[in-house]
User: Fold TRAP transporter substrate-binding protein from Deinococcus koreensis.
Amino acid sequence: MTIRSSTSATRRALRNLGLLGLCLGGPAQAATPFFLDVATSPKGSTASDMFRDIGQVCTGASFLRQRQTSGSVESLDLLLGNQVSLAFVQLDVLKARDQIDKDPRARELKTLLPLNFDEIHLIARQPTIKKNIFSRTTVSGVLKFSDLKGKKLGAWGGSVISANVLKAKSAVGVTVLEYKGREEALAALGAGQVDAVLSVVGQPADWVKALDPARFALRPVDIDPARLNGFYRPATLRYAQLGSGVGTYAVQRILVTRDFKTPERRAALLNYQKCALSKLTQLQETQGFHPKWTEVSFKEQDWPWFK
Assistant:
């Protein structure tokens, strides 16, 4: 009887200690899984697709949850406002926040993965062609970026930053109008409220391919490369119906994160980084993954690493 009584008392004491440990957060407390939100841009975007692809080859990525945004500006705002923990951001948007806006929080962010270069798509309506009584042909419309002088250019998200940077670098006196999203900007273009729209997106973009070639065309960004020294590099747009071989520029997109100090978060992010870096060939060769993976080297970038 004494032995059974002691055993029961011991069990009660252990249960009480266990409950006390749970209340105090001691060793008896079960580990609680954590999640980090990642701002990726809209569904169907390069960033959204690449996030999906990495998650398929890196099984340890389940602690990351996608949050779709309108683009780099919103994604960066959410990251700096501690509403997400990682974000896919255009490098020019990040640099503008640091160098133009002088936001000290930008310098605290780190590159987890340097990714692809997204091309600048300049889209205009098809030109109007007229002949006068002397059979002379006149063409009105935007045929290249420099034709935007004195005209209106629509953009949204991070592309607004890119449009203003190109405006400043080229000295072309264009008025940049900001729209909430792609549909609104394209509607304004179709209605003649703007003369062109500019979008920074990795080609081939499905929504660009879906544009009506009878109404719209891609136009070259004819800015002297010497004026764009830095993080823009020459590129070529290849859309058969809208204009193949159109000269433009591209800017890199990077996955940035807060510089976490807690060991469990650092370890999880470093493992995710290590996995992605080691699986580049698989990301490039898996059927159905975004074609932009073939251009990724994980080498180009101009922002401090998370390490």
Notes: The longest helix spans residues 2-24. The chain has two domains: 36-118+253-295, 119-252. The mean pLDDT is 87. The domain at 36-118+253-295 is CATH 3.40.190.10 (D-Maltodextrin-Binding Protein; domain 2).
